[in-house]
Amino acid sequence: MELKLNQLSVDGLTEHLDKGVSASYAALIGNKLIVAGGANFPGKLGFEGGTKAYYSEIVSYDEESGKWRLIGHLPDSAAYGVSVPLSDGALWVGGNNATTSLRSVLRVSLNETGAAVLKPFPQLPATMDNMAGSAIADTVFVAGGNIDEKPANRFYCIDARSGSEWKELPQFPGPPRLQPLLVPIKQNNRSYLYLLGGFFGGDSLRQPVISSEILRYDVTAGKWEITGELTDEETGEHFSLTGAVAMPVENRYILCMGGVNRTIFLDAITTQYNITYNGALTVEGRQLLHLEFSKEYMTRPIEDYKFSRECRIFDTVTGGWKTILDTSLTARAGATLVFEGKEFYVVQGELKPGVRTPVTIKGEINL
Question: What pTM was estimated for this model as a whole?
Answer without folding.
Answer: 0.96
